[in-house]
What we know:
- Helix content of chain A is about 25%, strand content about 20%.
- Chain A is built from two helices and four strands, in the order βαββαβ.
- In chain A, the strands form two sheets. A two-stranded antiparallel sheet of chain A has the order 1-4. A two-stranded antiparallel sheet of chain A has the order 2-3.
- In chain A, strand 2 and strand 3 form a beta hairpin.
- Chain B is of the alpha/beta class.
- Chain B is built from ten helices and 27 strands.
- A six-stranded mixed β-sheet of chain B has the order 3-2-1-7-20-19.
- The N and C termini of chain B lie far apart (about 45 Å).
- Chains A and B meet through helix 1 of A and helix 8 and helix 9 of B.
Amino acid sequence: MRIVVDFDLCESNAVCMNVAPDIFEVRDDDFLYILNETPDESDRTRVQQCVRRCPKQAISIAED
Amino acid sequence: MTGSSGLQLGSVVIVGASLAGLNAAEALRRAGFDGTVTLIGAEKHLPYDRPPLSKQVLAGDWTPDRVELTDHDELADLEVEARLGAAAQSLDLGARELTLVDGATVGFDGLIIATGARCRTLAAAEGLAGVHVLRSLDDCLVLRADFDASPQRVVVVGAGFIGAEVAATARRRGLQVTLVEALANPLSRVLGDEMGRVCAELHRDHGVDLRTGVGVADLVGEGRVRQVALTDGKTIEADVVVVGIGVTPSTEWLAGAGLDLADGVLCDESCAAAESVTAAGDVARWPNRLFGETMRVEHWDNAAQQGAHAARRLLDPGVGPFAPVPWFWSDQYDRKIQLAGRVRPDDEVRVVSGSLQERRFTAIYGRQGRITGVLGFNRPRQVMRYRTMIEQQAAFDEALAVAAEL
């Protein structure tokens, strides 16, 4: 599982950071940083929640 | 699908094909529901996202297809039958059947009500071209066409979030904008006077002619609007008027169905409105136990989350209360304004980082020793941090102490 963020869509609402702060971080420069692009399979539910709750639908999961 | 209580539903009908309804449909399938799911929408469009309508789409940056939330293939994969352009007209709970405006009847075992809300407007707008509201994609495209015609003067009535975003987008398009607000400051009834003044300055610094503490007495014109008459006796020339004075929950079709419809569909803590009937989104009013308050929330995030909750609750009466921290964002000019929690204008307000002058700050709200809300101007990271503290019902002092570490 690899996290893909479309940074043209991302508006730094930080919803993902709220769900998974160990994976996503919006820093004080207002940009989103992915702390862990390839999280463990055990994190899948949380990452899926980030995908669903992103107000801009900017997050997706790639299987490769 | 068998819920934990053993409830058996063969068919679920979702009325309302926007964010809450779509999230409900997806949540039904995620929960393993294998009966029929029918999504009924008044608009002819597939479910689409509304926030860009006052921003990217109205600005002309996005083509309308970019707001689509799903497509026919995805709905087919979900085995969801979409009946679009088919508003519900009435509900017979005893017969477990609803009637659409075209006369067709649709039976159901379970029902999710997600019909949203519609814009209030001014009585004087009746029959006048050039007067708009903005909620649907069609509203947006008609307004955008009027903006494309380079009007001399745009008047926005109501400086709430929609009005403020429309004013900001119109300014970005180089249009002259007058923003008329009945309150002393924009949003002061929500955010309090101090933060309302920050919003007022934001508009004025971007060249908006902001008139506060004044209402609209009349709209003047023959066939097309020409002037807005204010309650202070002044008049403003107007080629285009956008009315953003709030919404009314869409419950007319539920009249006589036996539900409590005073300001939305009254639900219990778990979003259930009646036996095997749940409600979600702008149309739902429910007691949120986190705040000890019965509320109706008109935000994007609530529609998405409550839609999913209402679906799970329909399948399983054991699903507990829906008790989120309401949260929304509004993009105006180069600012991202976010508010989380449930604040009142008389709450204590403390700026915990940044500065009001730079309009880059975090302010927290407190009442009776507890943090009740957080407002951020270009501070998404901190808003989310405090949102968690609100969820945890943290003490106001504790929230102030955390500010030092952020």
